[in-house]
Amino acid sequence: MLAFVIRRFLQSVVVMLAVGLIAFAMFRFVGDPVNQMVGVDTPQAEVERLRAALGLNDPMLVQFGRFILNAAQLDFGISYQFRQPVTRLLAERAPATLELAFTAAGFALVVGVLMGVYSALRRDSVLARVFQAVSLVGVSLPTFLIGILLIYLFAVQLGWLPSNGRGETVTLGGWWTTGLLTRSGLRALILPAITLGLFQMTLIMRLVRAEMLEVMRTDYIKFARARGLRTRVIHFGHALKNTLVPVITIAGLQLGSIIAFAIITETVFNWPGMGLLFLKAVHNVDIPIMAAYLMLIGFLFVTINLIVDLAYGLVDPRLRIALRS
Amino acid sequence: MSIRRHWLAALAAFALSGVSAEAVTLRYANQGDLKSLDPYTLNETTANAHLGHVYEGLTSRGKDLRIGPGLAERWEVLDGAKRWVFHLRKGVKFHNGEDFTADDVIFSADRVRATGSNFQTRVPKGAKFTKIDDHTVEVLLESPNPILNAQWDTWYIMSKKWAEANNAAAPTPASATTPSHASLNTNGTGPFRIESHQPGVKTVFKVNPAWWGKKEHNLDEIIFTPIPNDATRVAALLSGEVDVIEPVPVQDIPRVNSSANAKVLAGPELRTIFLGYDQTRDELLESNVKGKNPFKDVRVRQAFNMAIDKAAIQRSVMRGLSTPSALMIAPSLFTHSKDFASPKFDPEGAKKLLAEAGYPNGFEVGMDCPNDRYVNDGPICQSIVGMLARIGVKVNLNAQPKAQYFAKVLKAGGYKTSFYLLGWTPGTFDSHNVLHDIHGCRAEGSPRGESNLGGYCNKEVDALTDRILVEADPAKRDALIKQAFEITTKEFAYVPLHQQALSWGVNLNVTLSQRADNSVLLYWATKK
Q1: pTM of the model
Q2: Å from A74 to nearest chain B CA?
Q3: What is the mean pLDDT of residues A236-257?
């Protein structure tokens, strides 16, 4: 088992190095950061001096080595645009992204499961058909379009909810900012969370519906009915419980992508999270922020996959035996 | 326990906000960030306008861009513009209560010229600043300069004591490894002070009750949020969540104007959008003409000028929101601009000229164009491709984001372009800058012509430019400028297209002055 863990861990390190190298190679094509840092009428000598001071004239491998060494110590350098440590900028933005991602995931899970169960149990009802139609929209419409439609309807036309930003925030413990404790913060969270969670919600709904229909046909449900158990117990005590195993696996794996793909939702709603920071960094060729963000997302996926792999090892006895021999 | 305390704090804040409901807050959103608060870090209109609420220069520019007194009440120009004496305003205090004196001016003059400053050209290198008394400063120049103070409205004066006490005596260099105090904090003399600044998220300005000047606004607070996404910014204006946005995308202008609570303030901007072509290389980098450079032939350049229908661009691409231009400078910045006219749109004549020059079937050329820098820059270039196709010139358009575009075409990238679109606002609001920076002959080691990407060169124009710099008589100076522009337009140094329009979205209960350099200055705003 230990050997398996170590092997998986080493593989993860290799993946992270590869992510870093690919990200670094891409930066050569995003443009020249120095032009974004100075006005157009800056003397050329000054531009050259700046480029040398930033180490942009060094060979790529030297730059990459320097980057990896610093990154290993969690030092991602100073942002070109803001002249502030990237680690601090990302840490300031992380609460916004995480709150949005977890709210979206929670929304997707709760609403998705409820809708899935309902449309499996009352397959032919009108509401179930409506749910199916909604899920089609969620799967097929791109996130930014859904976001803009929601803004247009609920912020511009009806004026019920804010169109952008995070509302008022409260600082907890000096390092975490939350919008969950203020009215405006909660109101601001609704539209982006729905936008971000809609795709996952439809995914979960369809999964639950399919699994549930499958389970309802199995023998133990028939036996349960034959024993005269109440329908409620059969549906929620037996059928739903057995449906949830794959749902939880999928939801866990999707959490990583919710955080990573929050970029689009954050841009549409001007949500001050890490994704928005990253997108602006791309526009301004702020390499330190881009590099740190890509490494962070890479780290997130690698960690989640590592945990899932290890969990399989724990859960599946066949895998355990195979490993032992 | 700590959560409960925060609840209480939130409740208290809520109650307080109820009490101070009288306070007037103006919310402003721009597509760009306010990156660093250090006023010498980035020379860019938006940043300068933001910081202009907090910091002030020795001079100021009014709503019509006229130079007026600022921290200097008046000044004398002596010895043929070689010696300047500035009389500083008395009783001015920085936001932290320190007095403003001559020492701060001398300190700022050193700091703005130090390594890492992006404003080094604001003050000539050899200029000597001497303190005569606490409120008089003498500036001795190496050579006469009648427009010395043309850009001093955005050379912001910083406090010597404050900067030195906070280890910020040098400008924050872009390559710094530790954040500097001045990039996160401010201490100016202006009508507002910055209460909190979260880079890229939100900046809160509070009114400075001790400001020396006469207040022309009724605001207590300005909340600035960058909103880069066009659709979101417009939605925030339409829903009334923000009061002022800049810019409104051209295609959204009718929508904003037809809404019940906002309108678009439009006006001519000072930026001139133009096309340039490589006139120096012996063979173009991106063309099927080998062994020679067609743009070296003035007939080809004239043909390009005649083949482009500026009125059509204004009508269909800019939707009326531009002013076609015959000159490389905005008409409001040069008195004799009425005397110049664009060559008539005449594709047949252009074709004939091309044939005379030896290209009866036209030729092929690559074109570089930014697609996220100027208003509708990408579509302008596409329309130009079509217009030039009519005279047989096949343009291979390479439209890309500004980051890649500028990396390719500017000096740092080796001027690697054959044909390009660019915009230029003279930083000094004066023709000399246009003649020097984008018409001057390029030479190694000289700043002249550094932004002259096509390498147009005429020694006669350079000589005139040098005379314009030192000519102190305005009428004579304008005549010299006219003479220079006559040469450059006759030689078709560029294809000037238009001045784009400003487009600010403003809530109907806000009144605001719009300045033609696109500086959003909210100290001229009132909100009902």
Answers
A1: 0.82
A2: 14
A3: 79
